[in-house]
Design brief:
Layout lengths: L4 H8 L2 H4 L4 H12 L6 H28 L8 H19 L7 H28 L4 H32 L9 H26 L13 H8 L2 H31 L4 H28 L2 H21 L5 H15 L1 H21 L4 H29 L12 H27 L5 H16 L1
Length: 446
C-alpha cells in the first residue's frame, strides 16, 4: 500500500533540523572551532572524532531500549519527543560557544548534541522501516527522507552567507561567528514544528515480532553476516563524503585559490544535485535493485571525485560543475542502505522470530558516525603533523598543500571502490524480499 504524500512529508520533516548535526557540522564547525574560537587544530580533530566514538555505545543502548518500548503513545513517539529536548540544548551549546572555550566545554556540548541526535536518528529511521513491508515502497519512504535531507542541507548552507549579507543592515558585523550563530538559531527553531509533525501525523504501529532482548542477543545480532556486510557497505560509503566534507573548505581555499565564502558556496551546487539525484537513484533502484543502484552510484562517485582534483585552480564555474556532478551519486547510498536494512530486518525476524529493528538502525547510525568521525580525526591530525595551518590558507607551504590534496583524493576513492564491491555482492533482491515477507505473513497467520 502506498503511503500518502502528506504522511511521507510528516515523516521526513525532522530531517530538516537533524541534518544540521550531520555534514554541515563537519564542514563548518571544525574549521570554526580551530580558527575563530582558537582551539588547537589537532585537538579540534580529536574532539570531533572522539565524541562520536564515545557516543557509539549510546546508539546501541538506544536501539536496545527502543525495541523494548511499548507505550500507549507508540513505540517511537516517546523517543522522538524526549530527544528533541536534548537536541535543542546541545545545539545551543555547540553553535553558540564563545572564543577561548576549553576542550572540556567543547566536548560536553558536542556530547550532549550527539546524544540527542542519536536517540532521534535511531527512532526516526527505525520508524521508517516499520511503515511498510513493500520492497519498492521502502525506497520511496527513504527517498523522501533523503530528499528532505538535501533540502535541509541546501537551505542551511545558504544561511551563513545570507546572514553575513543582511547582518550589517541590522547592526551585526559580518563574520564566521555570525554565520554559525544564524545556523544555530535556524536549527533550534526548526526542531519543535518538525518533531510535532511526525508525532501527530505518522502512524506508530507495534511490531508483532517485537520482544525484549538482552545484551547477549545484541552480541548475537551483530555477528549476523547480512548485517555485518551492510554495515561495512555503509561505513565505506560514508567515508568519502566524510573526508570530502572535513577537508573541502581547506582544499578549495588553500589548493585551488578560492575564498572561504566561495568554497562554501560550492557546497550548494553539491547538495543541490542531491535533489535531482535522490529521485534518479530511486528510479534506478526500482528498475534494477537497491544494492545495484548503490554499487553504481558509489562507483561513479569515485570517478567524479577524482575529477575534482584535476580541475584547474581559480575557475569557480568549472569547480561548481564538478561539485554538481559529484553530488549526483553521493546522495544514493544513505537512503538506499537504510531501505536495504529494512529488508535485512525482515530476514532476521524470519530467522529469529523477533524484531530487532531499533537495534539494527542504532548500529547503522553508529557506523555513519564513524564514517564522519574517522575522516575528521585522522585528517586533522595528519594536517597538523605535516605543518598545515588552518589560518594561512594558500599561504601554507607547498608540501603542506600537496599533503592536503592527497588526503582529499586517495582515501575517498579507495573507500568508494570498496563500498561498490561490497554492494555488488548483496543477496536480497526484490524476489528474495517478497519471499521473506510471504513467509513472515504465513507465520503471523499461523
Amino acid at each position: 500500500m502506498l503511503l500518502k504524500r502528506r504522511t511521507l512529508a510528516a515523516f521526513a520533516a525532522p530531517c530538516l533540523p537533524l541534518t544540521g548535526v550531520g555534514l554541515p557540522l563537519v564542514v563548518y564547525l571544525p574549521p570554526y572551532y580551530a580558527g575563530t574560537l582558537g582551539l588547537d587544530l589537532a585537538m579540534t580533530g580529536i574532539l570531533f572524532s572522539a565524541v562520536r566514538w564515545i557516543d557509539l555505545p549510546l546508539d546501541v543502548a538506544f536501539g536496545h531500549w527502543i525495541d523494548r518500548t511499548d507505550t500507549k503513545w507508540g513505540r517511537f513517539r516517546p523517543w522522538m519527543a524526549i530527544s528533541s529536548l536534548f537536541l535543542v540544548l546541545g545545539l545551543a551549546m555547540v553553535f553558540f560557544a564563545e572564543p577561548g572555550l576549553t576542550p572540556l566545554r567543547a566536548f560536553l556540548g558536542l556530547f550532549l548534541l550527539y546524544g540527542g541526535f542519536s536517540a532521534a536518528q535511531v527512532a526516526h529511521t527505525s520508524w521508517g522501516q516499520a511503515l511498510t513491508t513493500d520492497y519498492n515502497e521502502r525506497s520511496r519512504i527513504f527517498g523522501w527522507w533523503q530528499g528532505f535531507n538535501m533540502l535541509a542541507l541546501i537551505s542551511l548552507l545558504a544561511v551563513p552567507p545570507l546572514a553575513n549579507a543582511l547582518g550589517p543592515r541590522f547592526g551585526f558585523e559580518a563574520s564566521a561567528g555570525l554565520g554559525v550563530h544564524a545556523m544555530g538559531w535556524v536549527l533550534i527553531l526548526l526542531v519543535p514544528p518538525t518533531f510535532l509533525a511526525i508525532l501527530a501525523a505518522v502512524p506508530d504501529r507495534a511490531s508483532v515480532h517485537a520482544s525484549p532482548h538482552g545484551w547477549a542477543d545484541i552480541k548475537a545480532a551483530l555477528k549476523r553476516p547480512l548485517l555485518q556486510r551492510l554495515l561495512f557497505i555503509d561505513l565505506f560509503a560514508s567515508l568519502p563524503p566524510g573526508f570530502g566534507g572535513a577537508l573541502l573548505i581547506f582544499f578549495f581555499e588553500a589548493a585551488r585559490g578560492f575564498s572561504v565564502s566561495e568554497a562554501r558556496l560550492l557546497l550548494l551546487f553539491y547538495f543541490a544535485a542531491g535533489l535531482i539525484g535522490a529521485p534518479l537513484w530511486g528510479w534506478v533502484a526500482r528498475r534494477t535493485s537497491k544494492h545495484m543502484a548503490v554499487a553504481m552510484a558509489i562507483g561513479s562517485y569515485a570517478v567524479l571525485h577524482a575529477m575534482l582534483v584535476m580541475m584547474p585552480p581559480g575557475s569557480f564555474w568549472v569547480a561548481a560543475m564538478g561539485m554538481l556532478l559529484a553530488g549526483l551519486p553521493a546522495v544514493a547510498p544513505p537512503f538506499l542502505v537504510r531501505a536495504m536494512l529494512a529488508d535485512v530486518t525482515d530476514a532476521e525476524t524470519l530467522a529469529t522470530g523477533r524484531s530487532n529493528a531499533g537495534l539494527y538502525y542504532a548500529v547503522l547510525v553508529g557506523v555513519q558516525k564513524l564514517g564522519y568521525a574517522i575522516p575528521v580525526g585522522l585528517a586533522y591530525i595528519v594536517l597538523d603533523a605535516i605543518g598545515f595551518d588552518a589560518k594561512l590558507g594558500s599561504a601554507n607551504s607547498q608540501s603542506a598543500i600537496d599533503g592536503l590534496v592527497l588526503l582529499f583524493l586517495v582515501p575517498p576513492i579507495v573507500a568508494a571502490l570498496i563500498a561498490a564491491w561490497l554492494a555488488k555482492g548483496w543477496t536480497i533482491d526484490r524476489t528474495a524480499q517478497q519471499r521473506i515477507i510471504a513467509e513472515l505473513e504465513g507465520k503471523n497467520a499461523a
